[in-house]
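Hi R.,

Here's the chain you asked about this morning:
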Amino acid sequence: MNLFLDGGAFSLYEYIKGTVTDISPEYIVIETGHIGYQIITGNPFSFSSLEGKETKVYLYQHVREDNISLFGFQTSEERYLFKKIAWRVWNWTEKCIGDYCCG
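And the predicted structure, written out as tokens:
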């Protein structure tokens, strides 16, 4: 079951504020409260100027049976667009699998 508010997927977390401690080709790490959070971003290197600095990253938490992921965005507008696109893709995929139309 998916919950959707304001045209996009509902997420438990609004944002995280902490220090960018690591940047990899697939994700960044934000440390806050002595915990490092791995956050998937479209272009992690766009956070390069923020490495070692405190920043706010807007989040979307995606939960599946086999995975829980945090996706991060520099602005709430970027996150909103992601949620709109992701909802359409995930909704289509669920319908497609249910109707056996894929493949």
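Residues 1-8 have pLDDT under 50 and may be disordered.

Let me know if you need anything else.
M.
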